[in-house]
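Example 462, ligand F0G.
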Amino acid sequence: MNKKYVAPPYRIKMVEPIKVTTKEERIGFLKDAGYNPFSLRSEDVYIDLLTDSGTGAMSHFQWAALMMGDEAYAGSRSFYKLEKVAKEITNYKYIIPAHQGRGAEQVVLPQLVDREGLYFISNMHFDTTRAHVELAGARALDCVIDECFDTENYHPFKGNFDLKGLVNIIEGKGKENIAGIIMTITNNSAGGQPVSMENMKEVKKIANKYDITLLIDGARYAENAYFVKQREEEYKNKSIREIALEVFQLADIFLMSAKKDGISNIGGLICIKEDTDLYNKCRTYIVPMEGFPTYGGLTGRDMEALSVGLNEALELDYLEHRMDQVRFLGDKLRDAGVPIQYPVGGHAVFVDCKKFAPHIPYFEFPAQSVSNALYLEAGVRPVEIGSFLLGRDPDTHENLESPLELMRLTIPRRTYTYAHLEVVAEAVIEVYKNREILVGLEFDYEPPVLRHFTARLKPIKK
Ligand code: F0G
C-alpha cells in the first residue's frame, strides 16, 4: 500500500531545533516524570505527538496578524475581526471568545443545567467536556455506533451516533431530563473519527422531535467536513466551507477549541445561533470566569492570529496534506501488522493497545505502558486514551473500563515532515516486536479529577 504522499502546500521559513536523547537518558526522564509522559519536559522529547492542540505551526499571515492586535480591554478591534470571521463561517448571531475549548465549556454548560438529575448525551464526550458536565451537576452519557469499537474493520463514519440508542436514552431518562445533545466532530476519543452529514441530520430530527438543545463540540469541524466531502457522494462537489455551514445550521450552539481547526496556539469560541437569553447569560457569566466578553481570556493578538487561522483551516489543499500525513503513518503501521483504529481519523493514528498488549488488564493501563515504551524507544511522546484517562465512576469511585485502550499518535498541524513520521512508524514497529516484555502500571499518586494529566505511576513488578 505504498501510495505516493501528498506533498505540503507550504515551504519552511523558520526552524526549531529538536534534540535526540539517548535511551539511558530517557529511562531517567521517564522515571522522574512518574511514568506519565504529560510530566516530561518537552525538551526531552524528540517528536511530540501528545496532542494537536495549540501545537501547530502558524503561517506567515498569522505571524503578521499578531502585530495588528488591539489590546483594548473592551471593544477591541481584534474582537470585531474575529467575530466577523466566526459569523461568516457559522452564520450564527452571537460570538464570544474564550481562552480555549474548556473555557467555552465552563461558561456554557452550567447555563443549561438548572437542576439536579439532568443528562447530556454525546456520540462521545471529550474528557474536559465530560468533566464540565459533571462539575455543572449533570451526567454525561455516550452513544456511539458499535462499529467504533471494532478497530479492525472499515466504516466510513465510526464517529456516528447510535440513533436507536439515542432515542432509547431520551425515552428512558425522560426528554425533560436531557439538558443537551452534544455532537463531537470529529469524535476525538474514538480515534478522530468523523460523523456523517446523514447522521447529523438524523440527530437534528431527534433533537427537534423531543425539543432538546443541540450543541456541536467542533474542535475539528473542518477535518470532519473534509471526510464528509470524501465519503458522502452528495457532498463531493461542495466546498469545505459549504459543508461546514450546513453542519452549523443543524445546531443551536457551537463550542470550539480553536487550538485545533483554528490553527492557533491558544483560543476558543462560543457561538450561539440565535438564543438571545442564553447569549446574555453567557456574557454575564464569562466575566468572572474568562474575562470581559470581547476578549474572553485572549489577547488582541491571539484573536488576530485566530481570525486568520480559522480561514486557513478550511482550505482544501491544506486539509488534503494534513489528512494524508495521518494516512501515511497509519498505512506504515498497518502494513507491519500493528493494530490501529482503521480507517485512521483526522488528527491522529490511534493504536489499539488491547490488541497490542492483551496481557495487561485495563486497570493496569495497557495503552500507557505502550506509550512509555515508545518514548523509551525513540523519544516519541504519544498520549493514552483509555482507562487511565477515563478515570473513576463519579458515584461508585470504581476504575472505569474503557471500551478502547488507545495510544494516540497525534499529528500537529504543519509541524512535522513525512520523515519524522517514518521515524515514529519504525519506533512503534520495534516496540510491537517486543511487546511481550511490556508491564502494567499502578498509581503512586492519583489526583481526584482529570487524573491522567498529573498522576504519578510506577511499573508493576511481577
Ligand atoms: N473538545 C474536544 C473534542 C477536544 O478534543 C478538546 C481538546 C476539547 C474539547 C477541549 O479543548 O483543550 O482547548 O480546552 N482536546 C485536546 C486533545 C486537549 O489533546 O485532544 P481545550
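Summary: Residues 43 and 427 are 19 Å apart (CA to CA).
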